């Protein structure tokens, strides 16, 4: 079965059809987070560090690191920062170094700037996931050589020069094109994690059905792992976390193997832990039982992040298992 292997300094995470659903923490991203962007402009990484620790404690197996949307007025007057090709690479390196000094989980290097992607790859220990490549020829020619050079897996997003199609057959065709072009570079299908693009259910009533069908096709016909930005499905709706919590187990049942999401939301994480057990990806329900203890602490008044961090600290003190390997 398809297995996409990610590594940190000492740990290995496998995204696979027969493995627990891989939670990729989305919080280290200044896009849409004005406070975080403002802090990063001042070289203040306190929120990044807190987010890294909280996400891992709450169950993130991989952390997405995005260096976009940080651009001060001072930078706008400096020609070095034109088109953001200077600031993102420097910031990406700093973010990667800060995060992996605190937590030992694989990283997902996330940027639209090739220089930032390469800086992240050079700074990362182990085998990170590269986010992302699309079906645009220019993007394929820029990103796939990096994937090959650093021998890392890549997120393949199902849009191309024509944009994001509402037709799921078109999005499948774009994914197939990326897999085929990657093969020309010697990149195997098991190192491609396809994002079939989840549309907002509030704008497109069939968005959920579309992505479930796409995930099955991607698994059965292309043999690739899949991911998505999980919160996209609930965009614009009230009680978004309830919608996300319903969507994720349904996507897992259809064959989706990972998601870029916020792990600090207990309702989504509860849904994922339950789905893992129901899919027989949690032998003897050990992870579900451990997660249930965290929820019990929440009922007693702790926040989910506080309860998860306390449980993680307790596990470390009692000699909780650590595993994995370092890429040679």
UniProtKB/TrEMBL annotation:
Keywords: Cobalamin, Cobalt, Metal-binding, Methyltransferase, Transferase
Molecular function GO labels: cobalamin binding; metal ion binding; methionine synthase activity; methyltetrahydrofolate:corrinoid/iron-sulfur protein methyltransferase activity
Domain Pterin-binding positions: 21-280
InterPro entries, sorted: Dihydropteroate_synth-like_sf, Met_Synthase/Corrinoid, Pterin-binding_dom
GO cellular component: cytosol
EC number: 2.1.1.258
Gene3D superfamilies: Dihydropteroate synthase-like (3.20.20.20)
One BP annotation, GO: tetrahydrofolate metabolic process
Alphabetical list of PROSITE patterns matching this protein: PTERIN_BINDING (PS50972)
Family: Belongs to the vitamin-B12 dependent methionine synthase family.
Name the record gives this protein: 5-methyltetrahydrofolate:corrinoid/iron-sulfur protein co-methyltransferase
Organism: Jannaschia donghaensis
């Amino acid at each position: 079965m398809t297995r996409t292997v990610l590594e940190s300094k000492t740990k290995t995470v496998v995204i696979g059809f027969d493995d627990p659903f891989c939670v990729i923490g989305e919080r280290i991203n200044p896009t849409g987070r004005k406070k975080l962007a403002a802090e990063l402009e001042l070289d203040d990484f306190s929120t990044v560090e807190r987010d890294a620790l909280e996400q891992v404690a709450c169950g993130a197996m991989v952390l997405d690191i995005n260096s976009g949307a940080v651009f001060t007025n001072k930078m706008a007057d400096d020609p070095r920062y034109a088109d953001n090709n200077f600031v993102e690479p420097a910031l990406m390196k700093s973010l990667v170094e800060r995060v992996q000094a605190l937590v030992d989980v694989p990283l997902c290097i996330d940027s639209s700037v090739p220089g930032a992607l390469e800086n992240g790859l050079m700074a990362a220990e182990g085998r990170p996931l590269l986010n992302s490549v699309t079906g645009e020829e220019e993007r394929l020619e820029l990103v796939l050589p990096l994937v090959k050079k650093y021998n890392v897996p890549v997120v393949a997003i199902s849009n191309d020069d024509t944009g994001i199609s509402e037709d799921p057959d078109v999005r499948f065709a774009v994914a197939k094109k990326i897999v085929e072009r990657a093969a020309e570079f010697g990149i195997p299908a098991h190192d491609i994690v396809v994002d079939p693009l989840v549309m907002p259910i509030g704008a497109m009533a069939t968005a959920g059905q579309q992505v479930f069908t796409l995930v099955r096709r991607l698994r059965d016909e292309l043999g690739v792992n899949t991911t998505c930005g999980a919160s996209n499905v609930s965009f614009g709706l009230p009680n978004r976390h309830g919608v996300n919590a319903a969507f994720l187990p349904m996507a897992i049942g259809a064959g989706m193997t990972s998601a870029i999401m916020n792990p600090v939301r207990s309702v989504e994480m509860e849904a994922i832990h339950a789905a893992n057990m129901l899919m027989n990806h949690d032998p003897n329900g050990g992870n579900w039982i451990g997660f249930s203890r965290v929820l019990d602490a929440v009922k007693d008044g702790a926040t989910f992040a506080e309860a998860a961090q306390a449980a993680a600290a307790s596990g470390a003190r009692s000699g909780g298992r650590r595993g994995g390997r370092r890429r040679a």
